[in-house]
Queue: 3 jobs
Job 1
Amino acid sequence: MKGDVERVLFDEPAIHRRLDDIAAQISSDYRDRELTVIAVLHGSLMFVADLLRRIPLPLKLDCVRVASYHGKSQSSGKVVFNEVTVPDVADRDVLILDDILDSGHTLAAIRETVQTAKPRSIQVCVLLSKKKQRAREIYPDYVGFEIEDEFVVGYGLDFKESYRNLPYIGVLRKELLEQSSE
Ligand code: IMP
Ligand code: MG
């Protein structure tokens, strides 16, 4: 598994240090409000678990499960909600947590769907944001790290459902991506 990673971008201590910063920022911004977190599964699993344990505020946690990739490394643009029920977030201060912002399709679709439940506010937090032109306009309120437009795995992020359990985030070897699109 390790040999499939071309280079490590963020090791475990670097991720945890950055989570300390984001958690402090979120805790300060939401100090007088009750936070409702909506986690986008499965990619955000490690991120959510590690981030929320650093936020000493009363909060609720809901999850949505979406798919847009279907095993390829480019977003298809069609976002399918597997967890169909939209969490009941009427009048709540919602923070959507996702692993990575790429084309923007996923987060735009989730934000629109959550909006229909009439929350008081919606903010977006991503661990990673790719520096690129997006198909949909999404400006996250909290970003862990900005990265180049490369395919990364680990710390929850997958390629064809593998590599999620790597404790670090690294760039997947290009040959592996190319093989899969043949
Ligand atoms: P978007 O809809 O194109 O913004 O893609 C968002 C989703 O695609 C993320 O939640 C990830 O599941 C997946 N994704 C995008 N880029 C990567 C990557 O570099 N590695 C692993 N998954 C990715
Ligand atoms: Mg994925």
Job 2
Amino acid sequence: MTDKIDIEEYLKTNFIGKNIEYFHSIPSTNIKAKEIAYSKEEGTIVIAEEQTQGKGRIGRNWASPKGKGIWVSIILKPNMNPDKVPKMTLIGAAAISKALKNMGIKSYIKWPNDIIIGGKKVCGILTEMNYKRDMISYVIMGIGMNVNLDEDDFNDELKDKATSLKITTGTEIDRSKLLASILNYFENLYIPFEEKDDLSETIKISREQSILINREVRIIKGNEEKTGKVLDIDNEGKLVIRYEDDKIEKVFSGEISIRGIKGYV
Ligand code: BTN
């Protein structure tokens, strides 16, 4: 299914995805979204069929072959302090997980920005922002979802760690329906957060779908690496970890890996 992504008939939102900037091939939808963020309304999305320099987190590349994935960036302009932005990634993860569930696909959220199926990564989120004097100018939420990629689309390094919906379900998935569904759920979770700082539904979904809660993990923060057990995701969206010395810490961000499990997670 390499048809062009066309979400209009499935979209039920008020502003998310109402304005679409569509490209066949660009370096990165996040880069493009940053270029146009000031001149476009909130909720504008940038879609590309192919990215030639897709960006992953911590400077990694994101493989984005033509017509096979959802490579999208959402332009957001919440009127809030920049320190709230890390929570927004969790809204994206919760919306994606809900949309997959609605299609009968069970997925897990690896707090705060990855979606996992069968122990492998199927989707990642890269949230970037720009702010001035304690006010957000814009937030770009980039979502990369491996939808109809085949085994051959992953290089040797990625094969153990990444998968696609097509590989895990055995069928091609309609990218337009899935993207519209993600955006529909996203708006429903984003509005209460933007208007009332209410993250309750997002947290509920993040807990229910979490792959980390009750697992022994390794957390890397800067140069430091520690091991502990994940107890919960708190009401602020922080990960609650009990370290081996019994100290409990709530972390806002960090690279987490599950101990004793090979491959990606
Ligand atoms: C990660 O490392 O897990 C985050 C991956 C984010 C990839 C998406 S694809 C659409 C958007 N544009 C980019 O260049 N990156 C994000």
Job 3
Amino acid sequence: MDLAEIRNIIQTNRDKYINELIDLLKIPSVSADSQYKDSVFKAADYVRQKLEDAGVENTEICQTDGYPIVYGDKIQNPSWPTVLIYGHYDVQPADPLDLWDSPPFEPVIKNDKIYARGSADDKGQFYIHIKAFEILNQIGNIPCNMKFMIEGEEEVGSDNLEDFVKANRQKLAADVVLISDTSMLSNENPSITTGLKGLSYLQVEVTGANRDLHSGTFGGSVANPINTLCKMIASLKDENNHITIPGFYDKVIDLTNDERAAIARAPFDEEEFKKELGVNEVEGEKGYSTLERTGIRPTLDVNGMWGGYIGEGAKTVLPSKAYAKISMRLVPNQSSDEITKIFSDHFRKIAPKSVKVKVTPYHGGEPAVTSTQSVAYKAAEKAFETCWGKTPIPTRDGGSIPIVALFERELGVDSVLLGFGLNSDAIHSPNESFGIFNFLKGIETTVFFHHFLRSLTKK
Ligand code: BES
Ligand code: MN
Ligand code: MN
């Protein structure tokens, strides 16, 4: 495979690739909000059409009880390695809208980045694979069997994916799953994610009196559920930011000194990290570095909290209810169901008699660690060396992609997390963006990944 030829094709088609991605970004496929239902289906149709245009065969829209899964493949030779490419065409809600510099579904290019909801997570990233396939098809050298599976419910917990995978083991059978839905350290220090966290997400409701009360007449005599909820949440961590839920750390495997040393070697600039986020100091579990906190230690965070009066002006009210949405990010060997259960038991136990507590679990997912010894990882490494001139650094990420553990468990297939995003892309935030350099370099790297996977696979 000729690097100059591939680079030339990408440069020649640059505007076409970008404009196709822009058309996809214009479709507001927000899976969490039913108001966007038609758009989510429309995005699935667009993806199927683009797969077909690129030369992928057997493209289809697979209906589920929720949003469809787009499938397509090109199988040429049973003795070649088979790559299953996974991505998601749904996006997070764009709120808060007033913090966007331009409308989230009217993509604009500024400072060599495409700004739009979903640009980096995950439309811009999975579109890389459709264009890489198109190039391989165009040069008449698709070195591997290829399968595409692009889903539309990732951002809401992929509820229908497990059934789909179980019902389609044969169709999805592959030697490796290839996913671009993570980020790299920086463009100067490309990296490959080798670990993702699991997730346990729940909502808690604390109820005091049976109705809202006058905060003067009743204040100080019955529980204020907001005050109580704050105290309960505050008690979940001690002064060292260690989580206090009994049993929470029981299954966590401590990293070896070698593993910790490897993390410490990663070129991470904490001053730059603080500056970029506008914080004077970092904060987290005592005894661990920032990269350890984000990559290998379990965490607990309130994602949203509400109750009482939040309208304009002042209303003197003692609320009847208070709510919070809480996420726990889990590390290898912790189980999402188990952690959800011990959290729920503990939270009910610490509630004072003066309130009632309800805990509602939402979606979860298991943590995953991917191998750095597999042929596919080596192929990814060589692709980076060829295209970026650097050996990628293996890193652990704090985000969750539950399908990685599911593919491993149900299909026995390991994943390679070939992410091309950057932490500054602001995924899930206002002004999400994806660098055009990263988009195009991702296409180039992916082309070479397939090439090296085939050549490194022993016949
Ligand atoms: N692409 C992200 C996950 C991610 C982001 C991994 C950055 C590594 C680095 C994915 O779309 C996502 O947002 N996942 C959710 C979990 C899901 C179950 C809703 C998450 O991590 O919050
Ligand atoms: Mn994603
Ligand atoms: Mn996401």
